[in-house]
Amino acid sequence: MKPSIQLDHEPVADGGWLVRALLRIEGEARGDDRRVPLNLSIVLDRSGSMAGEKIAAAKQAARSLVQRLSPSDTVSVVAFDTAVETIAEPDTGEAQQDLASRIEAIYAGATTNLSGGWLQGREHVAARRRDETVNRVLLMTDGLANVGVTDPLRLQDLCRSAAEAGVTTTTIGFGDGFHEELLQAMADAGGGATYYIEEIDQAHGVFEEELEGLLSVCAQNLEVSLVPTAGNEFVQVWHDYPAKSVGDRLTVAIGDLYAREPRLMLAEFLLKPAEEGREAEEVEVATFTITADVFTPEGNLEKQTVTLPVMLSPIEGGYANPEVRKELLHQEAARTRREVREDWERGDFAAANMKMRMMSANILSAPYVDDELREVSRDLDIMAEQAERHGVSARERKYMRQREYDAMRSKKAASQRVSRARREED
Predict the structure, then answer these.
(1) pLDDT digit string (tens) for 334-348?
(2) Is the pLDDT at 94 greater than 50, yes or no?
(3) Contact 35, 213 (CB under 8 A)
(4) How far from the centroid of its chain's Cα atoms is residue 226's Cα?
(5) Do 91 and 55 contact (CB within 8 A), yes or no?
(6) Separation CA 201–CA 60 (nearest Å)
């Protein structure tokens, strides 16, 4: 892994400095012949609400995924409604020549035993788990857990315990009926990602994105600890990764590191004012300690630790770093989306629309705006216009949550999620 820090800093009223540190962690690409083997379980909701286009799209995406696996990868398939059925026991490609046809034969049934399906997938992955493989459950559903374990906290705890045992979970929600808070909580606790399939034709893209990430994984259990230097203050982390604090140390769990997608984290600190006559040319603001289980070229898993000091030269004056400011705008837009969803929940649609319009204008007035930020601005404007004209549906709420999640987890390269701006162009 290759970490780097970019700084942005401006003076504050008491003579100190507000320091923004943008940490960027890049993974090193590996050749196909050296990629990490996969051990996956595809867990597919076949409840009655999945009948028709949803289950057809899910099966097509699942078939495409298994066809891209190498002969050394292990895969199992589970389908669930009221009952849970193992469609394919965990095995390698050579022993599963008819796997695509078995997936195609899955049919829609009754209610949603989400916990039963996930537990069966977890058991299959655990049975073939090795430290040197990526061990993941891919859970797809369009509904609420209404059979088996239905308590969200219990499901979250199950995913957390599985992750601690080396089996991670990615969740994929279809349509506008699933419980997005539950699926995100399961993915967060399970060390994976969460996706929203708004349109049926996005299913293939979601699987493609998840698989591309798994095929390029460079490290797992990536964590960053932040400790301000004595006398300085930690203000906030803008990205919204799972985190815990002990004393003055904040530890952020970032998860997997992919060669195709760097992970970002933007943190802010307050640097204390220098004593009169004792201004230093360079001072240490804080320390970042990065740890991860890194896959070596030989295929082993190695614990690595990198420590980076955050150093600032106050005598050079303030500096507005364009890359830091652009990422700050992305995070401000993500927080605006969160506030908008909260306003929608309260029925305050006027406040929500005003916030989207103001954030859009702030983006466009920035001197370092780029095409990606212009798309965010236009997307916010279109969402405001749609809310004014047609109101807000469950679909809009889920869409806003997913855009917020992607930005706050440095997943802006989520190619399968078509923005409302791009939909308007089409």
Answers:
(1) 999 999 999 999 999
(2) yes
(3) no
(4) 20
(5) no
(6) 10
